[in-house]
């Protein structure tokens, strides 16, 4: 099993768990759990593969991804009531999934010999779009758009780290590890310490 396949499996599992927890907050039935978990798990990777013209899309070529996401959703359906703070679990699971998925998307773009800017954008898309779809479908405020939080910027920083490491001759495997680490450390810092970017504030017009 290749590194990229492992990263895809890892991101699918963790994103599926976060998606199922969001489904529990929305009080959906078990089919709704499976749908939201699968959407979260494969949404970003699907967009990535379509944009990179990779055929078949990763979960179409290997249905085990959907089975994994569905299985995770069933487990959460029967255990979510045991979790004291589901929102906090969602936020932290999402942070791990973000780091893994950004690394997977970045690696996939590198494998298809894309230019650096496309590599960065594919890493960002893979890491963020599944969670965005999840939150929109479940009527949650998207984590990706929460005011001032480091989220998309974490994905961008991770992908840029990978591109920079490869430019300096680091093997792709270690560049992707560095990508995931930078992405997660920034996201964890935002959650724990409130790290954020400046937010635009409109000023009242002068009289």
From TrEMBL:
Q: Which chain regions cross the lipid bilayer?
A: 6-23, 30-51, 63-83, 90-111, 117-138, 150-169, 175-197
GO CC annotation: plasma membrane
Top-level taxon: Bacteria
Q: Is DNA repair among this UniProt entry's keywords?
A: no
Locate the Glycine transporter domain: which residues?
6-80, 92-165
Q: Where in the cell is it found?
A: Cell membrane
Q: Does the keyword Transmembrane apply?
A: yes
Keyword annotations for this protein, in alphabetical order, are:
Cell membrane, Membrane, Transmembrane, Transmembrane helix
Q: What's its membrane topology?
A: Multi-pass membrane protein
InterPro entries attached here?
Gly_transporter
- Specify where it is mainly localized: membrane
User: What family is reported?
Assistant: Belongs to the UPF0126 family.
Descriptive protein name: Putative membrane protein
Which species is listed as the source?
Phaeobacter porticola
């Amino acid at each position: 099993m290749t590194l990229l396949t492992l990263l895809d499996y890892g991101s699918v599992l963790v994103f599926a768990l976060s998606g199922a927890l969001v489904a529990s907050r929305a009080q959906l039935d078990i089919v709704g759990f499976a749908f939201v978990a699968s959407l979260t798990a494969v949404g970003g990777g699907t967009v990535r593969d379509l944009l990179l013209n990779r055929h078949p899309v990763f979960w179409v070529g290997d249905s085990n991804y959907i089975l994994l996401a569905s299985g995770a959703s069933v487990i959460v359906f029967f255990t979510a009531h045991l979790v004291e703070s589901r929102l906090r679990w969602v936020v932290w699971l999402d942070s791990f999934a973000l780091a893994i998925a950004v690394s997977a998307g970045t690696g996939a773009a590198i494998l298809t010999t894309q230019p650096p800017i496309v590599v960065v954008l594919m890493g960002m898309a893979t890491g963020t779009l599944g969670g965005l779809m999840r939150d929109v479908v479940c009527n949650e405020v998207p984590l990706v758009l929460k005011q001032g939080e480091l989220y998309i910027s974490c994905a961008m920083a991770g992908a840029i780290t990978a591109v920079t490491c490869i430019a300096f001759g680091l093997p792709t495997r270690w560049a992707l590890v560095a990508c995931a680490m930078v992405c997660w450390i920034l996201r964890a810092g935002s959650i724990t310490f409130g790290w954020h970017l400046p937010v635009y504030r409109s000023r009242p017009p002068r009289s």
